[in-house]
Design brief:
Distance between the termini: 25 Å
Number of domains: 1
CATH superfamily: Aldolase class I
Shape: globular
Structural class: alpha/beta
Helix content: 25-40%
CATH class: Alpha Beta
Number of strands: 9
CATH architecture: Alpha-Beta Barrel
Length: 312
């Protein structure tokens, strides 16, 4: 069943929530003071090449504040724009299953108890920071609330994984998706377009690969070069070509049109803090990027899954 609307030629998260809950749903990004196995030496050091020294999740709450204070601060900002809605507690910064199970249980249950209008929990993590005990905990939580696990894949290509210092292989990712789905937990996958070694066809292969897995959502990002990252230092020494807005639009449209009908598109472009962004500068104009994609799809009478199963 597709959930496209007249406004959008693909399944949007906003529309999914409207259909499921009948009202606006906000994600409130919380910082649970996690680190990352790809930084502390247990899987690797330095983190992924694009990850800031402060950790991914640059828009999450301030980890020195309690979860409640973080939640209330962000909620107040949201309410200036939208008066009413439901909330999802979103653990975004770093690897949010990278603590012992009892600490995780306490943290996630505290987050769910912050406000009666919290209807879900979204947890961003790595496939190599999950084990049987954590899967059991997540299954337990999924029976109490709407749980989404966000997993970073970025690319299916091994040479890209090595270049970006991802620290795990494709099999680890696939096993994690299968294990989460065995327990009926929703999975949202992050991919990145614009790695310097990748052709548009390689980027399409990454999104097409996800059609073979039972995933519920996708977040599509452009490779951002930011200050205080390994990628930023590399780019300063040896600048490389980054996608133009038009190139990015064309690739994303191709990915959407080949993507299975029932996958919800959570993001078509990412943010990075404006003062940290080195390139590409067009990513600052998020709404322009989204409008370009929508406009192109409407003008060419394209929609999600129109080319699903077709080989090009």
């Amino acid at each position: 069943m597709h959930m496209r609307t007249k406004e959008k030629p693909y399944n949007t998260l906003n529309n999914y929530y409207q259909l499921r809950y009948g009202q606006k749903v906000f994600k409130i990004a919380l910082n649970g003071d996690f680190t990352c196995p790809n930084k502390d030496g247990s899987k690797g050091t330095g983190g992924c090449i694009y990850c800031s020294e402060s950790g991914s999740g640059d828009f999450a709450g301030n980890k020195t504040f309690s979860l409640n204070d973080q939640f209330q601060n962000i909620k107040q900002m949201m309410q200036k724009k939208w008066k009413n809605g439901l909330y999802i507690a979103y653990f975004q910064a770093n690897t949010n299953t990278y603590k012992d199970v009892e600490t995780l249980r306490t943290l996630f249950e505290e987050a769910l108890s912050l406000e009666p209008k919290i209807i879900g929990l979204s947890i961003a993590t790595r496939c190599d920071a999950l084990d049987d005990a954590k899967y059991d905990l997540l299954e337990e939580l999924s029976k109490k609330t709407h749980l989404q696990i966000e997993l970073g894949l970025q690319s299916i290509h091994q040479e890209t994984a090595l270049w970006m210092n991802r620290g795990h292989d494709l099999q680890c990712f696939t096993d994690a998706v299968n294990e989460l789905r065995k327990r009926n937990i929703d999975v949202v996958v992050h991919i990145i377009n614009g790695f310097p070694n990748e052709t548009p066809n390689m980027m399409l292969e990454t999104s097409n690969f996800l059609n073979n897995l039972d995933i519920q959502g996708i977040k599509i990002h452009m490779l951002h070069v930011m200050k205080k990252t390994a990628l930023g230092h590399l780019y300063a020494k040896e600048p490389f070509n980054l996608l133009t807005l038009d190139e990015y639009r064309d690739i994303v449209v191709k990915q959407i049109t080949h993507l299975k009908e029932d996958i919800i598109i959570h993001r078509l472009t990412g943010d990075s803090p404006t003062d940290q962004l080195i390139a590409p500068l067009w990513t600052k104009k998020k709404f322009i990027v989204m409008n370009e994609i929508d406009k192109y799809m409407r003008a060419n009478k394209l929609h999600q899954a129109i080319y699903y199963n077709q080989k090009e």
